[in-house]
Amino acid sequence: WTAKGIRVAQIEDAREPLARPGPVLDGDRMISDVRWLADPQLEGRENGSVGLEQATQWVADRFEEIGLQPGAPDGSFFDSWSEEELRNRTRKEPTLRNVIGVIPGTDEALTGQSVVVLAHVDHLGRGWPDVRSGNEGRIHPGADDNASGVAVMLETARIISGTHRPARTLVFVATSAEEWGLRGARRYIESMEKWPAARALAVISVDAVGRLAEGELLALGTGTATEWVHIVRGIGFTTAVLSTAVKDDPGGSDQVPFHEIGIPGIQLTTGAHQDYHRPSDTSDKIDAQGLVSVATWLREALLYLSERPDALTSTLGVGQHRDPNPAQPQQGRRVMLGTVPDFTDTGPGVRIDDVVEDSPAARSGLRAGDRLLAIDDEQITDLRGYAQLLRQLEPGAEVVVKIERDGEMLSIRVKLVAR
Question: What is the pLDDT confidence band of residue 98, given thresholds at 50, 70 and 90?
Fold first, then answer.
């Protein structure tokens, strides 16, 4: 994926940061939240399951405890709906629901405007709708994806609600059905009337933020408004949280439906890893201090955006990025190559950041640092294009992958396996 990345907040001298992660942000609380959501008793929070129902009720209880006001159209914390496809699958009447809490704005001139924070609470349960070969029926805990994002959103909301009265309304949304075609975010756009999505200043999706360690916080999709890169840079300097503005967006999180209606949005993430959508995405691998850093960054962003007098300069044409059939998710990939991409890379094709052990990529000799340029003469333009190419292939197919390694062009034959 060609991510036109801009690295920020790399301070070369010994200057002190203007602000440090304060003790009020509680890493232990966030880790506890992650453990609760990723507990096997919730069975992976699959859409339509009792586990997801319990998780959304828990989030609503936390919103109320924090002091957020109910934000759903009916005056409660829940915006509920059903999907016929889910009813047919589960043979019962399951309900999907977004959990919505708000900190109302104080500036009457900004009535109806908002800044929206999204963190999806659903995951794959025992492997639906995206299961990798061999993992069928196993619990997928979803600790990073996305118990970590929910925990950071809750802690950030707790701190802001206790210390700040924003000029512009802050809306916090724990979405369902993100793993099933971003349906929760689309539902919010369709149903929210008091703070219409079309009047949102900006949206931030907090999705997979639990693996920061010594790495960088990535802000994907900063090309959706001209100001984002400067906002990311400024927050990096203010908080000393190392962060990178990535212009492009791979299109896999809840900010995407907002892009389709012209609203600038970014995804905060700590990056891809080998446990993505696997039973091994467990809470013991989550970095507590990293969660504090992400919450520090998010808090600073929300305080700035809630007080900013002017709209962001969107680069999005309304409908320009719209999925032609948004009610249905794209066909899933059936094959696995086994590469982990470098989201911050600015070169052509897709640079490999890591290779999954015992995968087709590993067995064929692909390695970290290789740059994927083509599959069977089909050029790889960026990460989204790479994913589309893989969707067209069948398990067992033998393909020729063209790469660049240390300035040398190589062609490597790879036999793909079921995902």
Answer: very high
pLDDT reported for residue 4: 46
CB-CB neighbours of 283 under 10 Å: 21
Residue limits of CATH 3.40.630.10 in the chain: 5-307
Residue keyed to tokens 């950041």? 353
If residue 353 lies in a helix (H) or strand (E), which one and from where to where?
strand 350-355
Matching residue, tokens 């793909």: 416
| CB distance 222 to 266 below 8 Å | yes
Residue type, 265: G
Contacts of 358 (CB under 8 A, 6+ apart): none
Amino acid letter, 24: V
DSSP letter at 365 equals T
What confidence score (pLDDT) does residue 17 get? 57
According to DSSP, the residues that pair with 99 across neighbouring strands are 78, 174
- What is the distance between the alpha carbons of residues 135 and 139, in angstroms, rounded to a whole number? 8
Domain with CATH 2.30.42.10 in the chain: 335-418
DSSP 146: I
C-alpha to C-alpha distance for 264 and 289, rounded to whole angstroms: 29
SS3 80: strand
Q: Output the pTM of the full model.
A: 0.84
Query: What is the CATH architecture assignment of 5-307?
Result: 3-Layer(aba) Sandwich (3.40)
Three-state DSSP class for 219? strand
Q: Residue holding tokens 């970014």?
A: 266
Which residue, among 35, 180, 186, 168, has the nearest Cα to 118 in the 3D structure?
Answer: 186
Q: How far lies 72's CA from each of 49, 61, 68, 164, in Å? A: 21, 14, 12, 22
User: CATH fold of 335-418, please?
Assistant: Pdz3 Domain (2.30.42)
Q: Are 273 and 343 in contact (CB under 8 A)?
A: no
Contacts of 271 (CB under 8 A, 6+ apart): 208, 211, 215, 216, 218, 343, 353
pLDDT digits 0-9 by tens, 228-239: 999 999 999 999
DSSP string covering 261-325 = TT--EEEEE----TTTTSTT--GGG--HHHHHHHHHHHHHHHHHHHH--S---B-PPTTTT--SS
